[in-house]
Amino acid sequence: MNELYPLKFEPVFKEKIWGGRRLKDVLGKNVGTLDKVGESWELSAFDGSVSVVSNGFLAGNDLLELVEIYMGDLIGDKVYAQFGIHFPLLIKFIDANDYLSIQVHPDDEMAIERHNSFGKTEMWYIMDAEDDAELIVGFNQKLDKQKYLQVLNSGKIGEVLHREKVRKGDVFFMPAGRVHATGPGILFAEIQQTSDLTYRIYDWDRVDADGNQRELHTELALDAIDFEQPKQLKTPYRQEINQRNEVQSCKYFTTNLLKLNQKIVLNYTWLDSFVVFMGIEGDLDIHFSPGEAPVRLSKGETVLVPALIDEITLQLLTHEAKVLEVYLPME
Hints:
Blueprint: E1 7-10, E2 12-20, H1 22-25, E3 37-43, E4 52-53, H2 63-70, H3 72-75, H4 77-83, E5 89-96, E6 102-104, H5 108-115, E7 122-129, E8 134-139, H6 145-153, E9 161-165, E10 171-174, E11 180-182, E12 186-193, E13 199-202, H7 218-224, E14 245-249, E15 254-260, E16 264-267, E17 275-281, E18 283-287, E19 295-298, E20 302-305, E21 311-316, E22 321-327
Antiparallel strand pairs: 1-4, 1-20, 2-3, 3-5, 5-12, 6-13, 7-10, 7-12, 8-9, 8-11, 14-15, 15-22, 16-21, 17-20, 17-22, 18-19, 18-21
């Protein structure tokens, strides 16, 4: 059996009513004839959208096949023991050219009971944002179920939503239960649980090409919403040069920012998990084994480093680079 190596995958593009052209124009994605591309699923084991390897001798194999064959060598022994062949993360780049629907995601308990699925906790790293770009995160006042329904049914839900200005480099954590939506003019990286469960609360009265509104999930969402107002909406983090800066850590994933201006060696003997790298700025090569050709990581690309690789070197090809490093936390 040939040795595993850092894997790149063919993106799975999703056209959305709110999508735009930044995935092509800013990240250089080959979206073909697609128009409003809202999402590039970079690493996915979700049914119907499973990622397929694009580099090396495993090109053409999909992620589920690889997990089934390589098991803990690919994703980590503890990860495989917990999730089996169900790869636990869904990695995306997202371009919001218009408002997303006001939405909320169920937690694990609710998702398993209702849909036999994982819940959906996620985080966003803002890669680019127009001057007046904003997110909707939570509410701007204290609500309970009764008051929330009154506002929703009166068509005034927009008046009670909290709006947060955003700029490049901002990070937002969106645990299951937090009402949210992305505003227009934002390009971001998203790390989330493997789940596509979204309860749509309000969709700005939009209609599709056939004049139909998208389905709303009022009753499902009501039970899922966390009405507690978070004390902190934007995630603070350090930006020290040439070292790991923890951006977000929860029970589902840990994400670090690597802000580099020189070569760096990363050792993973302590970690029993795969590692995902997302290119945020610049270009670099991932060296993983003597005599083996490195794997390139450029802005807008994603690489999966198998768990059995204990050490890699990131060699800059540009003056500077920014990379998100994602793995499952060690308990």
